[in-house]
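Hello,

I think I submitted the iron/sulfur cluster job twice by accident. Can you confirm which output corresponds to this input? Input:
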Amino acid sequence: MKRLTIEQLLGINKFAVDDDQAHIIVKKEICALCLNKPCTFACPANLYKLKDGQISFDYAGCLECGTCRAICPQATAALSWQYPRGGFGVNFRYG
Ligand code: SF4
Ligand code: SF4
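Support: Only one job matched these inputs. Its output is below.
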């Protein structure tokens, strides 16, 4: 059986992106004080990235797993996290 890469597996999913309302908002001023930035290696969709020393985040492609909220040491202050509105978000497909 052919083994797919993470990128290929993620590419199978469909996303209905809510352009009017982000379901996760990251407060970058709090992130600037975060030492290890665990979200950058824990998000399975790789949506948190470090660019020029600053956190960059795009909610499109979110798997709604909650890992970032669980692992963030400042989750209450740094993240506004909720599930997408009805009709939006990830639609998991298994090939
Ligand atoms: S772990 Fe939390 S506070 Fe740290 S960079 Fe990521 S979102 Fe920001
Ligand atoms: S909920 Fe999961 S997939 Fe979405 S941004 Fe957080 S860690 Fe990444």
